[in-house]
Design brief:
alpha+beta; Aminopeptidase; seven-stranded mixed β-sheet; 7 strands; 35% helix; 33% strand
Amino acid sequence: MNTLTIDIRMAELQDAHAISAVHHDAWMGAYAGIIPHRALLRMVGRRGLDWWQGAIRRAANVIVAEIGGDVVGYATLGRNRARELPQQGEIYELYLKPEYQGVGLGSRLFRDARNRLAGHGLASTVVWALEDNIGALSFYAGLGGRDIAEGVEVFDQKALRKIAFAWE
């Protein structure tokens, strides 16, 4: 009998290709039909191998979820960028390959990201999600996030509302 291990750890340079693939698959799955197609393709195209290698080299806070040695998800985190919000930390991105969604791995990745933020003295957390991304809204609400603010992101002249969820 084989045992698959699940590990959440800091990203390493050799993870960049796998993270790029997760980013592509997750974004195409989550945002097709929400973000205008050309804008989505441009955004995904900018986040290739070189971009992720640079992020990891800059000591960006990138963590990965690994199952049986394969990177199947990632999160990026740091200080809250929205100065009008009181939360100290922010999870900028949290994505899993579509085939790994809905099995509890995202919750584990989220908890680990929050623990890492708290370990850096950033006890409260905010996460933004596009209002039309129903899966993300239900995921963050299910984790106890409070809807505290709204904003707008513009993609190829299409304004999309986004919602901030917070945890204290």
